[in-house]
Amino acid sequence: MALADTARVAAPTPVRSVSTTNACRMCMPLGASLALAGFEGTVPFLHGSQGCATYIRRYLISHFREPMDIASSSIAESSTVFGGESALVDGIANVARVYRPAMIGVATTCLTETIGEDVGGALARIDGCRPEPADPAADGSVSPTGAAPALVHVSTPAYAGTHVDGYQAAVAATVGALAEPGAPTEQVVVLPGLVSPADLRHLREVVDGFGLSHLLVPDISDRLDAGVAEEYQRLPPGGTPLAEAAAACRARAAVTLGGLVSPGTALAGELLEDRFGVAHHRLALPIGIRLTDALVETLEGLGGTAPHWLDAERGRLVDAYVDGHKYLAERTAVLFGDEDLVLGLAVWLAEIGVTPAACVTGGRSGRLAAELVRLAPELDGRVTVVDDGDFAEVEELVRALSPDLLVGHSRGYPLSRALDVPLVRVGLPIHDRVGAARTRHLGYRGTQELFDRVTNALIERRQDESAVGYAYM
Amino acid sequence: MTEVLAARARQVARAGTGGVDLDCDRQSTSGSVSQRACTFCGSRVVLYPIADAIHLVHGPIGCAVYTWDIRGALSSGPELHRLSFSTDLRERHVVFGGERQLEESLDELIARHSPRAAFVYATCIVGVIGDDVDAVCRAVSERTGIPVIPVRSEGFQGSKRKGYDAACEALMSLVGTGDTAGIPRHSVNLLGDFNLAGEIWIIQEYLRRMGVTVVANLTGDGRVDDIRRAHGAGLNLVQCSGSTTRLAQQLRQAYGTPFQKVSYFGLDDMAAALYGIAEHFKDPEMLDRTRALVAEEIATVLPVIDECRADLEGKRAAIYVGGAFKAISLVKALRLLGVRTALVGSQTGTAEDYRYLAELCDPGTVIVDDSNPAELSQFMATEDVDLFIGGVKERPMAYKMGVAFCDHNHERKVPLEGFVGMANFAREVRASVCSPVWQFTPRRARAGRSGTTAHTGRAAAGAAIEVMC
Ligand code: SF4
């Protein structure tokens, strides 16, 4: 089913299958739920069968090891005939009652898209007949005014894209729906993509360090990596404040990190530019020296000044590269996961002397191969890129290439075990280790951590394989 | 006080407050953040452990991804069940239909993996786009010579139980197609055991020592050819009653095979199950062997259990699991450890199960059907529990509340069935409840500061359940 990019093939192109075995992606509503969870006081709501919400919760809970409530309209057979609007209306009322959210983000699923539900219309009808705001003193919900929750809608039929498309579509839909035009602000809107809570915290620190007023949209860092509180919090605090998200359309600039999506999926940054004239910059995820330098340049271009500590981190990273380079020489890796992450990682591996011999993603942007060569020209002709791939294809490539390393999420573990190739865990999901939320990938600091993990994985392998049992490497 | 949505008012009760009559097996309340999944999930969990079959999910990719190798249903041989196959439907299939995609996928996968059968799971949109799954399955079966079985598991059809029924129907289509020659009289099928963490092997070993032959596992460590001859067994043992009682009933009707409902969790229920089998076969020698087995096994595990009870005595637990039958065993097993159950619920229990639970539990115990995080977290606080027994979705909630946790669902890695399973369970519970980390969680720290036990909130126990309108 997948389309290999045959333009720059280094390894044999894997066999194309009709069916998919062990997919290398998730479905659109998962990404949408994650994006919506990054807005303050928001409950993600999936309009469809109960299973979609429950499966997605389970999947995300196992990764973040945090509660993740996703509501469902739990539509029944009759709804497939008569429409699911009443289930949607009841569901929204119940969520509003139990959670008192500031916003409910409604994402569709395969089923409701296929039966052609008019969700936008239904939400408008709900909005139109809402009662007067409840007693403001009702309780300490995040909606201090007691106002009814904002309702946003994003269309996420799983058959039309990947979880990354779902994520980006939800960010764009929310930013578009909340937009309140008005006086321009000094803010730089950072659209971080599907990265870890630790990455988000670091990004905040970096942009802060440049002295730029900024806003992360969305921001799951506190909501999906929270401490233990005295009382259970149905709506975990944190997330992009809705009022600020509403002002994103007046920002001076928007910076999208990553943003490789299937054709037809709009990015929030593009929407801000097209509809509101916000200057939009698109960068690859800042992994490694080159790609982080590009972010630094962009932030300087926006009038910021790089903080000293960032320079120092860059210096230490270069020092680490030098210290470790001989362990890395002539090594090869096979990468799999989301397009944005795979792109950033591949460009980075190339700069430390590791060849990312094959890159397999479940994505369908069709742009990964070209972006790779644009950002790391030395990779031209040396990397096999498979779009819309699955793990049957990863396996075939690993067998053909015998790489030294796998870099990807925990779904690669069975392969790593069967073929005895070490796996460095990055991205989502990481279901077999603790600390997924704390895994840092971005900036000089995140790269430093990745560098140590990758280099040590190779050292460890060499040490284990040595008959001597060296205690120094 | 705990608030419950009006639509769910009849799915929550307290033991000892008159007749408990829960209104269960209904569609989850919209917007209630149910902890359970859908019809597809029900079918998938029951059939999944059949290890030499292909399990092809016909639909868009998500449903297949989220059920890829998610249970520790072990196999002693082939492991086809651990692969996630999907027709991965796209927009064009939604418009033009997915029959060809299904047919080609089946041909491709059967040629690649040579399975003994193929199960085709229909997901939400398959019916809506009008695919004739039955016809495709028939055609491929004729061409390839293996059973290709459609499973009517469209997610919206109803609750998870509905999916169990669809799975049982699929299994019924296999049973009766194999040769039963050579099956001894003292033989059983194991229904509703999914061989998590190798549990079915423990039970099989007990049966072997008793002199009982196992014909087919339905479905843990299951094999297609065994299932085809399952109608030759003398008795069906039904564990996890929710999922396979229906199959046992159908087998009794079609082949006259009697069945017994059993539970392999806890010492009492495990022993009762084995005695029940021996009595059924009316073989005095077998009964003697069983007595010896039970005595020996219990003697081995009792020291561990006693040791754990010393540490656990007086603790309070919440149980929220998939099936009510398991919940019943857990209440008893916890009692053996000196732990009182303050809240018990399940995703798929029947009114009868809940009535039994209400009788079994201490007065005041909260009983819930198809619950959700909002309710469970409130009850955990008002009932001031020390321990939560459930699945992955409940774990972070318990931890956030400073409550210990024991995974008793599909992802467990330690066998909890059998006598040895009870010892493992005791250890699992103790490992969490007695960890020193709880002293730092705010709720426990507060209790520690005020110099009392963690149960200072106990006065709240028995607090009112308020219906929200
Ligand atoms: S693929 Fe479709 S039906 Fe399956 S879980 Fe995703 S949204 Fe739900």
Brief characterization of the structure:
The complex is a heterodimer of chains A (473) and B (469). By secondary structure, chain A is of the alpha/beta class.
Descriptive overview:
The complex is a heterodimer of chains A (473) and B (469). Chain A is α/β, with parallel strands linked by helices and 473 residues long. Among the domains of chain A are: 26-160, Rossmann fold, CATH 3.40.50.1980; 309-465, Nitrogenase molybdenum iron protein domain (Rossmann fold). Chain A contains 17 helices and 15 strands. Chain A has helices at residues 28-36, 50-64, 77-82, 85-99, 110-114, 119-128, 163-178, 197-209, 242-246, 268-276, 288-301, 308-328, 339-351, 368-375, 391-401, 413-419, 443-465; strands at 3-5, 20-21, 42-47, 71-72, 103-108, 150-154, 188-191, 214-216, 253-257, 279-283, 332-337, 355-361, 384-387, 405-408, 423-425. Chain A has a six-stranded mixed sheet with strand order 1-13-12-11-14-15, sandwiched between helices. Chain A has a four-stranded parallel sheet with strand order 4-3-5-6, sandwiched between helices. In chain A, strands 8-7-9-10 form a four-stranded parallel sheet, with helices on both faces. In chain A, helix 10 links the parallel strand 9 and strand 10. Chain B folds into three domains: 2-32 and 301-468, Nitrogenase molybdenum iron protein domain (Rossmann fold, 3-Layer(aba) Sandwich); 39-172, Rossmann fold, CATH 3.40.50.1980; 187-293, Rossmann fold (3-Layer(aba) Sandwich). Chain B is an alpha/beta fold. In chain B, 44% of the residues lie in helices and 16% in strands. Chain B is built from 18 helices and 16 strands. Chain B starts with a strand and ends with a strand. In chain B, strands 2-13-12-11-14-15 form a six-stranded mixed sheet. Chain B has a four-stranded parallel sheet with strand order 4-3-5-6, sandwiched between helices. The interface between A and B is large, with 75 and 78 residues. The structure holds iron/sulfur cluster.
